[in-house]
Amino acid sequence: MSDPLDEPETTATHPANGLDDVVHQRVRLGILTIAHEARRVEFGFLRTQLALTAGNLSQHLGVLESAGLIEVEKGYAGRRARTWITLTRAGQAALAEEIARLKQLIVRVETADGR
Amino acid sequence: MTTHPVAAGGDPHRLLAQVRHLARRVRVAQRVTWLPLLVLAAVTFAAVPAHRYGWQVTCVPVADGELCHGRNLVLIVYWQVATAVAYVAIAYGYLRSARARGLGGRVMPYVVTGIALNVLVQVVALLIANEGWGMPEGLERADGLAMFLTRLIDWGPAIGVALLVLAWLERHLALLLFTAGYLAVLLVPVNFGWGTHWGGNWQFLPPLVIQGVVLLLGGLGFALAQRPWQHR
Fold first, then answer.
1. How many pairs of residues across A and B have Cβ atoms under 8 Å apart?
2. Chain B residue closest to A24 (CA)?
3. Which positions ≥6 away from B219 have C-beta within 8 Å?
């Protein structure tokens, strides 16, 4: 009798195949995580926490905004321009999905190592 | 260009560790734990006049003298208004502080819980004051349990239960431990006999002062730990 774990993994079952390239990236995952925890986060906080230049952060924000995962709101605090980032529902779902996939990957790797 | 090398994809362990690390940093940056503790300590100390001078005693003549009934509506109104104002001030302070750091806030469930528990305590206090509702019969036989119940349905424990919600929201172990200690001080029916011979209706003072001092010390402790003046 064959063990299902010994069978070659199909593309449909391996968690790595469900990873979203937009989210499965260190900086963009960090942006989504911070925006999720903070409810709303300012550009400067993201730049400091992720240790990025303004230009590089803007590029990543552009990718996430184009994918509909975040909303970017520009405004002023006194005379100072401020950019606030909020996670959309799609962003919440994508973050939850990514974390679930990462956990599945870890379990799969650890199971494979244990055999 | 980036100041960090950013690899597409990455080790799942490291990515998850990064997620947890960043989430924790955000939660720590959002904390203003000293604010509710100090505000609620002030509310507690300011309640002393209402506790002492708010009593209204109504006496009716009976066959062998007078039957007197006392109730303190001033106290009920004071706690209702003062805690509602306090929670609104706490919400404002939290959100203002978080905004100054470039973050949103996660304080609203705490504020809503605090106000809702306060309303619940007020309703129960009014029912007890007007109807004698909920008081166990045979009080002398169930002394420990009765003391526990009367202490539980009070403004002090309501503050503590709301603080448990805040500790959960902030995933704040130190606040959880502090709140557990605070609730233990309020709920464990220990009577040192303080105030029993003071006269002049000052018996309420020791537990109220203990509650206020615990909140005050907690607020000062968290302020020293979180150093809010360094974020300005």
1. 91
2. B9
3. B34, B35, B36, B37, B38, B41
